[in-house]
Amino acid sequence: MIEKIDAGTAIRLLDAGKAVAVDVREPDEYAVGHIPGAKLLPLGEVNSRAAEVLPEKEATWLVYCRTGRRSAEAVQKLDALGYSNLYDLGGILSWPYEIEGDFEGHF
């Protein structure tokens, strides 16, 4: 079962270096704004590039997109690929913390 994770718990894990955020949106969306340090793995590339972008299957990965639809699909795909510590962070639209990028007026 894939667990949802709230922003408060996620930021504590990220700040402590115990997890890495994974953005499954498209590169242009990532460029507009993303969680600092997030790895980009577009949903359409999860099956073909997960091993390259997310080499540690036992690491803690916090998967997010814009609203939560793509992140839910991505965690299912990653789970099927053998990733064991996945959390569905949902959408960046509800992320109350720092966002990196030129997102003024884009969300």
UniProtKB/TrEMBL annotation:
GO molecular function: thiosulfate-cyanide sulfurtransferase activity
A Pfam family hit: Rhodanese
SUPFAM superfamilies in the record: Rhodanese/Cell cycle control phosphatase
Domain Rhodanese: from-to ranges: 15-101
UniProt cross-references to SMART domains, sorted A to Z: RHOD
Classification via Gene3D superfamilies: Rhodanese-like domain
PANTHER family: FAD-DEPENDENT OXIDOREDUCTASE, RHODANESE-RELATED SULFURTRANSFERASES
Protein name: Rhodanese-like domain-containing protein
Organism: Faecalibacterium prausnitzii
